[in-house]
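seq:
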Amino acid sequence: MIVTNVPGPQIPLYVLGRELEEVFPVAFLPQNHALAVAIMSYHGKVGFGLLADYDSMEDVEAVADGINESLAELEQAAGKASAAA
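struct:
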């Protein structure tokens, strides 16, 4: 497994007058690795990209679901902490 985190710009970017809305990062999958996770922030958001070797890891959706569930738990905990303060 390889994980990479790239901080992106926190201001909106434009091309030909159109605003870039989301970033979908993709990490390379090195030889003898089953999963590559790319994480990139952009304009107050964080995007995750998963690339897996199907022969080694046919259930990459389970990892994606786990990331989404964990982020929801973190948001809920942060909301409770903010309300308590």
